[in-house]
């Protein structure tokens, strides 16, 4: 019986690896870094091996998501960056003022890499790691510099071979499908949160719990769009795989929107007053929907016939449960009307999933990467237009990123100056730690600093104890290999544990080279503490980003996005066709405001903070966006024509009126970016007929707008004081 839980745990790990191949990433890191070490030990060229391993490890910190073309560009870019900044560090290491000047530039560029997202943060490692280490060990002549450049190039090339080989035999579109599967897994968590409380035993989720899960869905969608930017209406039918997958992704995003609509309807139902039989039917549908989404996620990744069969079974079960609920006498009781609407929305989810299955079948069989890319197509991957576009993104000097880049540059330069001026042995760990720990936000910097110190101290102690044991070199190499894998596995899960294995790997690496001693561990610990402290001080005192100032501005941007969504839907000259773009913009602004609010609560302050006002405004904005989404969903799924309601225009103008009243306060808060309001007197009447359900959503939106107006008045008054 003990074997069963272990098997389930192993099965969960294997399934998780299908969606987020973390172990594959760790294995790639281990192979890329350990092979040069073994080569160095075997040939006696440990110094050359160290440069190769350092280069390979630096580039390996970039997570290889996206298509094969994106992977190849990342690997090529990593080689270029490591060679350039490795050479720059090597030729400036013996001149203090030149080192300080270059460190300032390197720190600034490393900060700007945040513009490229998660991959940019990984590529920043290729910039500052090679510069700092190269600066610590400067070359004395041209021959040494040339030899070092060759070793760096060899390490980058070896890493490129490992990274490319790992992708050659995978289906060409599997990375795209994997991003869709991640969206589905986040939807799985969303449905689970919505279902809580309907079983009669668990506690019902509140709006914050549901919104946190909704944010995860939005983050997964944004990641997919960042990697594969072509949207459903932009995809060409000539590329069958690309077109069908874009449509599947759109359908998946709409499933999430429908589930939020279900939660909005069920929120109006009092569970305690709902009969047990009806409550359990609703719970059964939600759990069946959750299981269907889960199987769909697995099927999207592997496209196996057996998974298709399991998915069809789940869909059939869901349809039967919906039919049973529809047979329940819901008519005639106003209390049950939200349940009736939720049932209809669940039917739409089923159809969207079935449509996605059909599209995946239409896309046909995929070829592996090595058969999908001809020589000309492979060369085109490295076309200069891709590099130029990334350079434009990199040097996008928006206020937020520039402030962070300046902060990182100054803090790292101070750390480098301290290390050089006082001739601290292995003092390069000070600026190195500073750049690793320093984050755009103060709260995140403190958390990462604490994790960094804890992981470094614990890893140093464990490494010292491990090296004291009478173990052969073979055992040490195995432990080094395992450390490489585990530090990657924990880097996004628990940073302190990842740092523990990073430190452990460094200790064993130094021991293999024969340069390990107790004082070295002590110096690394002190340098880590010093670098972390420097990062905290810089985050607090040097161009800090305090959400006390930025949160009101994020709120105004959120109101503005909802206003543009509303006016584009009902008062634009042309009919709204791509409403999902406005939906994403509004949801993105809501997410920015919510994240800013969370950081605001963690910031130190001597005054009492008005948490309630901010939270209420964010909640109202989220609900307004959801009501606008519901209106558009009803429009897309309309089956019969409706007649124009006599009070339709009156309701729309009432909503516009309250939008304008809120925007008046919003413009007073954010006077630098005022919103131009439409002239209410000269707007044409909305010509299309809205259904009774859409009019109900408008009524609910007006209620939210009126409630938000009270809080906006208080906030505007507070900002004036």
Tell me what the structure shows.
The protein has 721 residues and is an all-alpha fold. The radius of gyration is 28 Å and the shape is globular. Helix 4 packs parallel to helix 6, helix 17 packs antiparallel against helix 22 and helix 25 packs antiparallel against helix 27. Among the domains are: 21-172, no CATH class; 174-366, Methane Monooxygenase Hydroxylase, Chain G, domain 1 (Up-down Bundle); 547-635 and 644-670 and 685-720, no CATH class. The longest helix has 29 residues, at 692-720. It is built from 27 helices and no strands.
What value does the average pLDDT take?
86
Distance between the termini: 67 Å
**How much is the radius of gyration in Å?**
28 Å
Strand proportion = under 5%
Biggest sheet, open or closed, and with what strands and sense?
Answer: none
Number of helices: 27
The CATH topology of one domain comes to Methane Monooxygenase Hydroxylase, Chain G, domain 1
Order of helices and strands: HHHHHHHHHHHHHHHHHHHHHHHHHHH
**Overall morphology:** globular
